[in-house]
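User: Teach me something about this protein's shape.
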Amino acid sequence: METIDAILSRKSIRAFEEKEVEDEKIEILMKAGMAAPSAMNTQPWEFYVCKSEESKKAIKDVMAFGKYNAGIIIVPCVREMATIPLRHDLCYCDLGAASENILLAAHDLGLGAVWCAVYPDKNKMKTIRKVLEAPIGVTPYCCLYVGYPAKDDKSKVKEKYDEKRVKIL
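Assistant: First, the predicted structure itself:
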């Protein structure tokens, strides 16, 4: 798949087949996430991949709008120690870039995915960190539900371009 085609044809998938996501594809998704740019190349991320039914259920119990039955749930997290040289919140921009890379890679691999926000909800961030048993200093950013799209998926690619929002100076 060409890059522009992937960007323009990606859509949020919320209905998934009961099919496991292969370890090889998970590794590609992680490589895509870690290929993202980051401020001063700090790479302030750590990724938790929830594969077990128990871990996925625990995440879904916390997420009011994230009850999807995906094959995996990827939780990109900020490693706060990596942000010390910068002492600012650009790490959340970095995690946004990494998350989008994962979404695009999933699409290219024939998987579907949807992004559900965790940041900036401090309560949700703390609760999911506990679910992941992540140490203090590792903060969840979002939940990416990834799996094989259900055959009856009716979601459509939406044309989002609006020339009125482009100002050329």
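Now, about its shape. The domain at 3-149 is CATH 3.40.109.10 (NADH Oxidase). The helical segments are 3-9, 23-34, 53-62, 90-108, 122-132. If you'd like, I can walk through any region in more detail.
User: That's plenty for now, thanks!
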